[in-house]
Design goal:
about 100 residues; elongated
């Protein structure tokens, strides 16, 4: 739904991921006990509650917040290399 782009609703999951990472980091660095595999596992489980494990699910969160890229922009970005190195030359008689 493009009407929600850049809204608080689509920003909330991003902030949740950031907060989860920050909280986990603080728990890890402020811990006075020796770090064991069990404590690391526990912290990772807490982190995974706010962060999707699959790449597409993770990217979908950021895509929902950001403005979609138009077909024209994708085309221009993909052809920027050719335009730069040919200095815009588009064939004989078409400069």
């Amino acid at each position: 739904d493009i009407s929600k782009t850049g809204s608080i609703d689509t920003l909330t999951p991003i902030v949740s991921i950031q907060r989860g990472i920050t909280d986990t980091k603080l728990q890890f660095t402020n811990s006075k006990e020796v770090v064991t595999p069990e404590s690391c596992s526990s912290l990772l489980q807490k982190l995974l509650q706010s962060t999707p494990r699959e790449e597409t699910a993770f990217k979908r969160i950021f895509d929902a917040y950001s403005t979609p890229v138009s077909y024209k922009q994708k085309f221009l970005d993909q052809n920027a290399f050719l335009v730069y190195y040919t200095k815009g030359y588009d064939g004989p008689g078409r400069t």
